[in-house]
Design a protein that fits this description.
- The complex is a heterodimer of chains A (554) and B (712).
- Chain A is built from 18 helices and 22 strands.
- Chain A has 554 residues and is α/β, with parallel strands linked by helices.
- The N and C termini of chain B lie far apart (77 Å).
- The chains are: A alpha/beta (554), B alpha/beta (712).
- Chains A and B meet through strand 1 and helix 18 of A and helix 15, strand 16 and helix 23 of B.
Chain lengths: 554, 712
């Protein structure tokens, strides 16, 4: 505000009509009918969709400014495994993207993979703070994605962590993901980075046996301040149908782990439409290029639990998918199997689960190898029924808590439980962690006049066409799609609306006819304020903000 | 009495009544150019004269308006309304009208003459046209405006029917008349007016006059070929005689008016025939609207000072001046004091009265006072009463009164800071200006000044910015700026630039005005400056009409847009100003839009570069929420739609080379166009066929541009 004066200096009597003072005395804000517009940043829908609450729009803005290291730092604040997640996450973020109906969703997965790969290539490292020395250790059991994430978030918060793993490998369930989806090198390097980070102070202890006695011991002695259990879901579900024990039937996880069979099959049937089923099918495709591979699952095409991109890749590779058939019985015939299916009746149970009930309309398939992929469950069911007392010190995360089926959800549970654990250690009381969240930006907030309706850049495929692909994938576990080059990433981030996030485009400042938007430069980022003393309330800034950040609150 | 009841009472303002009176008088042809405070009358004329058998026209300036009226008045009854600067611009033609003995009637909504701009009333404008040979009436209220316009046609068209034997018997008037009233408040305040029917007025007025009855192709003649001094003097002598005849004819006309309409009308001098105080020793004299306050003041004094002996006379017919009548009225009894109120900086009324009283035996003391300059409505009767009392009681200090000091505006103290104290601010426009909410016209100057820098002089011809910037002693511009008359901006900029260059100083002189200043009234100046290649930048903020006066058509209004002077919508096409400028071989000309600030800045940068070689002209589209009829927040969006629909294609011409903006290359669809039309009320009257026609023209224009861009 201008300084105040006792009396305006006016030349009197007016000899010439010279106007020398500013019009600032005229507070045109009084002309305004309603409230003054204000800046109300919103949550981008991608961030809203992401279980990890990833700051995607902010990171994209950093890449736009060519601050890729900063973007990587920001990204790894919420997710220590961008290269892994960029490849295998379902990318709930993309499903929520406002661009969906306007040229197609932003390929956030490809951007994440680009960030992750560049981080690996340049050897960027995490920066953990020093331990808050007086505090006791927190144990994390299980070195899968959830456990590693838990250790990571604990160390980020400056707490002492101890990682306990019964095997001499880390990665947990993610080790079953085939190479063409997640190269082992990426998995090892990225997960190992958490343990290699300087000042990581993570101890890996010998295997322990995880049972109720263990929990009781933890509670009884003060060695650990808390225990985070990320033991995963290691028990393979069975089909529970007659004939399941045949030698020609193998569980998908065993198949993926390389426990192959002696049989050289001609016709392979995979039972189960989840990601594991598809992984098994595509792996079979690579091992036995001559064999016909068929997936049969009770779910309809839309309801298949596998990721859409996985399904389409499977189809591209020449795998047949048959939907809506429930296996009833398996019989061994001479050099093969005969499997009896039926068209199931679909029932929605009271707890929301979908049940498939057998019917009388049968269908038979022959095969010489069947792979079952009926999912897994936690091996420690007692964890779900901890007493209130136990819950103050024992926290369950990842698939051990609930079958998430998604790496980002498993890691998100780790992130949230770490926050919860920290809070509960501070206050002594367990309280589920809830942040106050800003409203989510929608497509209605976006001024589409500022954005071209443009599709994303095309993936660079390793194979020219489906024919070549089917020919060349035999024994070949290379990734189908290459990591995007910087140019493609640049092209794609220009398409991003940056929903609800101010990128300093200057529109409000530029278009304000009342000179009522004040621009303050702060560390090369522009910050705007609306001067309600002068704002006449025309609403041009509200209308012209490409991202809908300015609002008139009634 | 029965007939009197037929006449109805209506609540009307002076402006409305002026238009209505002309309509009822059977005027066939009117032309009008909007100017505050007469605009409302022009709009009324436009509405009323839609009728078959009548015509309303607009033009690019008041000068052309009077020219049109002169032409039409050779064989039709004509009328127009103007004010202030507009009347001043007509000056040359005022002479022509009276010399050609054309019985034109125009209404003048009195307003001060600038600059600085002031829209309030005083009589400077009409008084400065005293020697153009026009009869001048000054009205006090709305009823009088109505009656006087009827009366004026009677007088102006007065022609001897009998054969005249000697020059002295010649009673012809055939002289144009100005009927003046205060733009504020008379022009705008509504009063109950007693109307007269069209038949009655027809009965009162002469048959429509075929002035030069001789106009016929069987007997051709030339009007106004050059004459020798002897003949010229004869014409002038006749003109003066005709003018002076008006005194006698007015008397007759008033008599007849009262006979036909059965109601009183103020005679030549209001109060001459019905004095309230016949034996008064002290007389107050005034003209026009200020007489109202004067009458109130005198009534107040007569009540409080029983021996004041005051009487008010109001001069209604000022030119020709009723000298004899004045001598008679002021010579009756022995007058002590005469108090004359002049509603202009010059004591014109006093001069006339003094001349009238020359060599009379009774010489009363004359108190001539100038009052109400630049706003007669601001003078209160209390103020006048106090001052007149001072004169009567001998306490007068001899000073002029000018204006009631109580009306001095008070500025809030907040932020009364001089621009020079805050020179390092980046923004060269300060907030607190008076533009409407959502105004698009602020932005181009805001952006242009960012590029042009502080060493810039902005010349602002009459436009919205005349109101936006100010009021005195404040300005929202942090650079040097000069407000200029409507047609003068371009050439004032040239003068400034030349004078600075003589001192080896490098500055940018920018003329920044609305489309009126460049497409219409100032087009001649722009054209000649471009032809001579004067080294300046001209920026036109194009809101496609006269938006400052409330949305009237201009040369920039596109086909299909409804304005208050183009009903139901404009039938003619928008001037393509950039192509016109290109035809001048101008060094740089460009269309821009407020929706594209980056593009506009680049164009300003180019203009700065090219101005060394000649003139640079940029026409930037600035939608107007109030005039175009859209919500205040849509200003930018509407501009963007105009560009994307092809209605306002952005292209530029650099040294004769056409460069098309990216949007032009995309063929716009009818949907874009319909989107653009639907967003504004001004296109509401368009039919689907009109829209298809416009679409075709847009496509043709874009194809033409693409071809030209290839060739040139």
């Amino acid at each position: 505000m201008e300084k105040e004066r006792d009396e305006p200096e006016i030349i009197f009597p007016p000899v010439l009509p010279i106007s020398e003072i500013t019009t600032r005395y005229n507070l045109t804000g009084f002309w305004r009918d309603g409230a003054c517009p204000e800046f109300v940043p919103k949550r981008a829908p991608c961030k809203h969709g992401c279980p990890l609450n990833q700051d995607i729009a902010e990171a994209i803005e950093l890449i736009r400014k060519n601050r890729i290291k900063d973007a990587w730092n920001l990204w790894t604040e919420n997710n220590p495994l961008p290269a892994v997640c960029g490849r295998v996450c379902r990318h709930f973020c993309e499903e929520k993207c406002s661009r969906e109906d306007y040229g197609g969703a932003i390929k956030i997965g490809n951007i994440e993979r680009f960030l992750g790969d560049i981080g690996l290539e340049k050897g960027w490292m995490f920066d953990f703070p020093k331990n808050r020395s007086s505090e006791r250790k927190i144990a994390v059991i299980g070195a899968g994605p959830a456990g590693l994430a838990a250790v990571y978030f604990l160390r980020k918060a400056g707490l002492r962590a101890e990682l306990l793993e019964k095997e001499n490998k880390f990665g947990g369930f993610s080790r079953f993901i085939p190479e063409y989806r997640l190269p082992r090198r990426v998995l090892t390097e990225e997960m190992g980075r958490i343990l290699r980070a300087p000042n990581n102070q993570i101890k890996i202890l010998n295997p322990i046996s995880l049972d109720e006695t263990f929990v009781r011991n933890v509670l009884n002695n003060d060695f650990y301040a808390a225990v985070l259990i990320a033991s995963g879901a290691g028990v393979k579900n069975r089909l529970n149908i007659p004939g399941e024990n045949s030698e020609r039937i193998i569980n998908a996880l065993d198949f993926l782990a390389g426990d192959g069979t002696e049989i050289a099959p001609k016709k392979i049937i995979i039972i189960g439409g989840g990601n594991t089923g598809i992984d098994a099918a595509r792996t079979a495709r690579r091992f036995y290029p001559e064999a016909g591979v068929k997936i049969i699952c009770p779910e309809s095409e839309e309801a298949m639990p596998a990721y859409k991109k996985e399904i389409s890749a499977a189809l591209l590779e020449g795998i047949e998918i048959k939907n809506c058939f429930l296996p009833l019985e398996i019989r061994e015939i001479s050099d093969g199997l005969e499997i009896k299916f039926c068209e199931p009746k679909i029932l929605l149970a009271e707890n929301g689960e979908i049940c498939f009930l057998p019917t009388d309309s049968f269908y038979f398939e022959e095969a010489d190898l069947a792979i079952t992929a009926a999912g897994t469950k936690s091996q420690n069911p007692f964890l779900r029924h901890l007493s209130e007392k136990q819950k103050e010190k024992v926290f369950v995360i990842g698939d051990a808590m609930e079958k998430f089926g998604s790496i980002s959800r498993a890691m998100a549970s780790a992130k949230n439980v770490v926050k919860e654990a920290i809070k509960s250690l501070e206050t002594g009381k367990r309280k589920s962690h809830q942040e106050e969240l800003a409203a989510v930006a929608t497509i209605k907030d976006i001024n589409l006049a500022y954005f071209e309706k443009k599709p994303p850049p095309r993936n660079s495929l390793r194979y020219l066409n489906s024919y070549q692909l089917q020919k060349e994938i035999a024994g070949n576990f290379l990734e189908l799609i290459e990591t995007w080059p910087t140019s493609a990433v640049r092209e794609e981030i220009e398409r991003c609306f940056s929903c609800g996030f101010c990128v300093g485009c200057d529109n409000c400042y530029e278009f304000c006819p009342d000179i009522a938007v004040i621009k303050i430069k702060e560390n090369d980022k522009a910050i705007y304020e609306i001067d309600e003393k002068y704002c006449k309330g025309c609403g041009i800034c509200v209308k012209e903000c490409p991202r809908g950040i300015i609002e008139v609150r009634i | 009495m029965k007939e009197k009841r037929k006449d109805e009472m209506k609540l009307l303002s002076g402006n409305e009544v002026a238009a209505l009176a002309a309509y009822l008088c059977g005027v066939k042809y009117v032309a009008g150019y909007p100017i505050t405070p007469a605009t409302q009358a022009i709009e009324e004329l436009s509405r009323l004269f839609q009728e078959k058998g009548r015509k309303f026209e607009t033009a690019e300036s008041e000068y052309s308006i009077l020219a049109k009226v002169i032409g039409a008045s050779l064989c039709a009854r004509t009328f127009t309304v103007t004010s202030s600067q507009g009347l001043a611009l007509m000056h040359e033609l005022l002479h022509a009208a009276s010399n050609y003995a054309l019985p034109i009637v125009i209404a003048v909504a009195n307003r001060s003459i600038g600059l600085p701009w002031n829209i309030w009333s005083d009589q400077t404008d009409s008084l400065s046209q005293l020697y153009t040979g026009w009869i001048q009436f000054y009205c006090e209220n709305v009823q009088e405006v109505f009656d006087t316009i009827i009366l004026a046609y009677k007088i102006a068209e007065y022609q001897e029917k009998r054969i005249i034997e000697s020059e002295k018997e010649n009673q012809n008037v055939l002289t144009p008349i100005m009927v003046c009233y205060d733009g504020f408040p008379v022009g705008h305040n509504k009063e109950l007016v007693l109307m007269s029917s069209q038949e009655k007025i027809k009965e009162y007025l002469a048959e429509e006059l075929d002035l030069y009855q001789k106009i016929s192709f069987e007997r051709p003649f030339t009007l106004g070929s050059s004459s020798c001094p002897y003949n010229f003097a004869q014409f002038q002598k006749d003109r003066m005689r005709r003018l002076n005849n008006a005194l006698e004819i007015t008397k007759k006309a008033v008599w007849e008016f009262e006979k036909v309409f059965g109601r009183k009308i103020a005679p030549i001098i209001d109060g001459e025939d019905s004095p309230k105080n016949p034996a008064a020793k002290n007389i107050c004299l005034a003209m026009g609207g200020i007489s109202g306050a004067l009458k109130d003041a005198v009534a107040q004094i007569n009540k409080s000072l029983p021996d004041a002996s005051l009487e008010v006379l109001r001069i209604k017919l000022f030119n020709p001046f009723p000298e004899e009548k004045i001598r008679y009225l002021l010579g009756q009894n022995k007058k002590d004091r005469i108090i004359i109120l002049n509603n202009s900086p010059y004591p014109v009324l006093t001069e006339r009265i003094k001349t009238a009283l020359y060599r009379t035996t009774n010489q009363p003391e004359i108190f001539s006072r100038i009052v109400g300059v630049g706003g007669s409505h601001e003078v209160s009767s209390d103020f006048l009463a106090e001052k007149i009392k001072n004169i009567l009681t001998g306490k007068d200090d001899g000073e002029e009164w000018w204006i009631d000091p109580k009306t001095a505006p008070r500025l809030p103290n907040l932020g009364a800071v001089k621009h020079c104290e805050k020179l390092d601010d980046k923004e060269l426009i300060t907030p607190g200006h008076r533009a409407c909410s959502g105004c698009g016209a602020i932005l181009p100057l805001k952006w242009a000044l960012e590029v042009l820098g502080k060493e810039t002089i902005v010349v602002i011809p009459a436009c919205c910015w005349s109101v936006i910037d100010g009021p005195y002693p404040a300005s929202n511009l942090k650079v040097m700026a000069i407000h200029s008359p409507f047609a003068a901006g371009v050439q004032i900029a040239s003068g400034i630039k030349a004078a600075f260059e003589l001192q080896d100083k490098k500055i940018n002189a920018v003329c920044f005005g609305g489309d009126g200043s460049f497409f219409d009234i100032g087009f001649g100046a722009l054209s000649s400056a471009a032809e001579r290649g004067e080294n300046n930048i001209y920026i036109c903020y194009d809101n496609e009409g006269y938006m400052n006066t409330g949305n009237q058509r201009s040369g920039a209004t596109p086909f299909g847009a409804r304005t208050k002077t183009s009903l139901p919508f404009k039938q003619e096409r928008k001037k393509n100003i950039i192509d016109i400028m290109a035809a001048h071989k101008i060094v740089y000309a460009a269309f821009a839009s407020v929706s594209e600030p980056k593009d506009f800045r680049e164009k300003i940068e180019k203009a700065i570069k090219y101005q060394k070689e000649g003139s640079c002209f940029i026409d930037i589209l600035c939608p107007c929420p109030t005039g175009w009829g859209f919500e205040n927040n849509l200003t930018i969006e509407i501009a963007r739609k105009a560009v994307r629909s092809g209605m306002f294609p952005l292209y530029e011409i650099e040294k004769g080379k056409y460069k098309l903006g990216g949007e032009i290359l995309r063929a716009p669809s009818i949907k874009d166009l319909e989107d653009y039309f639907a967003a504004q009320k001004r296109f509401a009257n368009l039919t689907d066929e009109d829209k298809i026609l416009i679409q075709k023209e847009i496509n043709a224009n874009l194809q033409r541009l693409q071809r030209i861009a290839k060739i040139l």
